[in-house]
Amino acid sequence: MKRTELNLTERRTIEALLHRKVNVTEIARRINRHRATVYREIKRNFFEDNELLQLNGYYGMLAQKSAAERRARRRKLVRIPELREAVIDRLQEGWSPEQIAGRLKFEGHVTTVSHETIYSYVYSPDGQSQALARYLPDRRKKRRPRYARTLRDMMFPLERSIHNRPEHVKDRSVFGDWEGDLMIFRREHGKTNVASLVERKTRYAVLFRNNDRSSKHFIARLMNVMEPLPHTARQSITFDRRIEFSGWRKLKPGIGTEAWFCDPQAPWQKGSVENLNKRARRYLPRDTPISTFSDCDMKAICERLNGTPRKCLGWQTPTEAFAEELRKLG
């Protein structure tokens, strides 16, 4: 059977050999482990005391205790039924593990959980017995190794952070800045989903159906929908870091629209579209067979949403506010 975790005997051996100044390659040979495993173990569990420098070093018992605590954290969703139920409920609502973990922290729960722990539980035997992977935005039978995944920082670089948006986008003083998201439906209804867009100043909503979850398909569909608008009416769109938005680089050369992205696990930073999704779910609950909805059906829902007076608009409707801004563009 393949060994993954070091045991206490091995950790004590590492401690003793390090004390005798034996190099890592030789230590790895003696405990029959790869030297990278030993390097990683020492780096992860190296004890440092800034006041008593003579105590700095690797200690087998401390390393074993730290490893046990890490395993306990990974089992948090097994040990705490209330936390497990909260996570599963949100998964079934279409939330990603990043959104769930971030929201639990934002709400100030006593017990929180990382998105990696949620993914681990989803693909564990417990999670597989409940078929939880079917609720994930990017579903697989099993998860790819962590270090084989594409880094999100490469897809969504720092310069595109929401914190670098111009001030007029933040304060809603200028027309033409949008927020975008996807509304996901039950797996048995296929890959069809609904893209939701809202213009930040006027709260004007646009919903359109996608027949595919790929980024290429979504971006192409988005550009077709936005292109008829005057350029100043489609200056930017703020997204979260879903994989479906990874094709954002096509927007600027394609339709002249900038893209901005929320912080990891912080979908509430695009609160306007999150609020739109909540209102749209009245007409499009998660169990909706969305593939049966026509473009006319989607338009009717948009008209209903945009025809409701809003306090933040001085009781104008989004339709009226949006039309007024278009008239100003002349």
UniProtKB/TrEMBL annotation:
Stated name of the protein: IS30 family transposase
Q: Which organism is it from?
A: Octadecabacter dasysiphoniae
Q: Give the matching Gene3D superfamilies.
A: Ribonuclease H-like superfamily/Ribonuclease H
Keyword Aminoacyl-tRNA synthetase applies: no
The upper taxonomy is: Bacteria, Pseudomonadati, Pseudomonadota, Alphaproteobacteria, Rhodobacterales
Does the record's keyword annotation contain Transport? no
Keywords of the record, alphabetical order, are: DNA recombination
The Integrase catalytic domain sits at 162-326
